[in-house]
Amino acid sequence: SNSVYSLLVDRDGLIWIGFYQLGLDYSLYQSGLFSTYSYLPYFDSKDMPVRSIAITEHEKLVGSRDGLFYINEEQRRFKNFKSPELRSSMIFCIYKFQDKYYIGTYGGGMYIFNPADLTIHDFEPNEPQPFMRGQIFSIKADNKDQLWIGTSMGLYCYKDGKRIKQYTSANSKLPEGNVYEIYFDSTHKGWICTENGMCIWDPSSESLKTDIFPENFIHKEKIRVVYEDSDHNLYFLPDKGSMCISDLSMSRFRRLQPDTQLEGKDGMFILEDEEKWLWIGTNNGLYRYDKKETFIPYNFIDGIPSSIFTLCPPVQDQQGNIWMGNSKGLIYMNFKQNNQMKRYTYPLTITDIYVNGKKSLHPVVESGKVPEIQLESSQNNLTFHFSGFTYTEPAYMTYEYKLEGEDEDWQILTGKSEITYYDLSSGNYLFKLRYIGNPDSEVRTAVHIAYPVETWSIIAVSIALAFIGYIYYQRKRKAKQTKNIQIQLPEDVQEPEKQEKTVELKYKTNKISTEECQRLTEKLEALMHRDKPYTNPDLKIADLATMLGRSAHTLSYLFNQHLNRNYYDYINDYRIEEFKRLINEDEYSKYTLGALAELCGFSSRASFFRYFKKATGITPNEYIRSIGKNNDE
């Protein structure tokens, strides 16, 4: 409507527009943490897909689908190269080496740019493929000032402008396909990543190797990015799938734990900042990762124009600015301002609590440090309404919440400002809410749901009956034990052992020698490994005894007197080991935990979880994460 009746610009710079009978509009809030680079009137990267950059103290080189841009603000110099001056305007990589910039293109080969006179010329004019018409994906230098080039025709190495070696899949261990990434780590090893896998340049033997990777490593996948942090951990971003983390020797490696904010996203780049956190750009968002469990998302609210980042290696300059390539521009932020600007202007607030679908008439009592609401037993459906008073696009607002007493882990909520729980049991709960990755923003509300009156009566009667039953049972048990001992002892024994164990009496007439027990144990273990009878959920001790050609009583004696454990624990231990074996095999990676439990012989998912926790001290999901695996459940 054109009927604007009121206009307000608030202290955050938002514009509020009131219309006649048509409500209220407002402009979307952005913090200004990130900015899109421009050097007007010559250059503006807004809406430009930036594919490669090189940033020095005074110079900037920006590669995009629209050519190459050189900016020197100190000397007020600017230059743009594109078709027809370039055979291809799609710039894939830029690398500064010995005061010159080496430029790789898609379909136009490779160039050398001289910033002294702003000229550009061919790198290898006598080599049509790949340096005149091919694809150049990666350019890096090693510690010996040798220039390595990843191309569509293999891997090249140059020294002082002369070619030393060309590696292909035909003359070396280089896997087939385009060479997408070259990375030299702190031990000077070169990680070479191609369309069909990875190999390592070994500087000691000056050769490419593929036979040094451990089993289940990521070397058979298409890797787009390799990065080493200050703790000398390597990070591998595959074209598809989760990130892999390894030490330099590959003796310890794992996949990123499941159920993180990176799940389902393709990694584009990694950069470590001064606080040893990692910035990870993806095809759907930017995240800051503490290398443990915390991921802080950055999006439109922070000034990022698009959630899509490109395969552009980021750069941190001498002033602390971090530069990143985005599908809608070259963006940058000053890391030193990050912690200050990521703080929210207004505190997160729980504005309302709805009970059974209606606004609560019960007051929230501020009796202590945590506000509390007292509810009746029937009032067990709760909806928490909240606001951060940040007026922006709701889809970009992300929170974490947890109801202690109901939720085991923190839950993630995006684009909504209410959370509902149904059919809560009587008891005490603590509701927690915070901006994701920001523990200081946490707000809390305690909830007490009363027990029904009849419940207290039932509890009191149950306790009394249980106590009476316990006293009766203890007296009967002692009387029975005394009677059994008197029956079993010979009459001529003058000083009988009055406290002989019940279990010893049970097996008194069926003792087996230690040697026979050992032979039977070996026979039992051979049967378990060979035939895996434990995978039958209905397996009984009598069934096992039949397989061994012994009586059930003899086998019971073996378990209780020789192995000192019961039959069910013995069988379940084999089932747990079978689960650990299956979870390490790729063909079972898509099975649910319930299905895997059945394959191992457990009768139910609940019994599997219960015994696994009893035997190992951790849950199945925790075990899967500890070995770097993933599971869909």
UniProtKB/TrEMBL annotation:
MF annotations from Gene Ontology: DNA-binding transcription factor activity; sequence-specific DNA binding
Coiled coil: none
Gene3D superfamilies: Homeodomain-like, Immunoglobulins, YVTN repeat-like/Quinoprotein amine dehydrogenase
Keyword DNA-binding belongs to the record: yes
Domain HTH araC/xylS-type: 518-626
Entries under Pfam families matching the protein: HTH_18, Reg_prop, Y_Y_Y
Domain of life: Bacteria
Keywords: DNA-binding, Membrane, Transcription, Transcription regulation, Transmembrane, Transmembrane helix
Alphabetical list of PROSITE patterns matching this protein: HTH_ARAC_FAMILY_2
Transmembrane annotation, as ranges: 455-473
Protein name: Transcriptional regulator, AraC family
Organismal lineage: Bacteria, Pseudomonadati, Bacteroidota, Bacteroidia, Bacteroidales
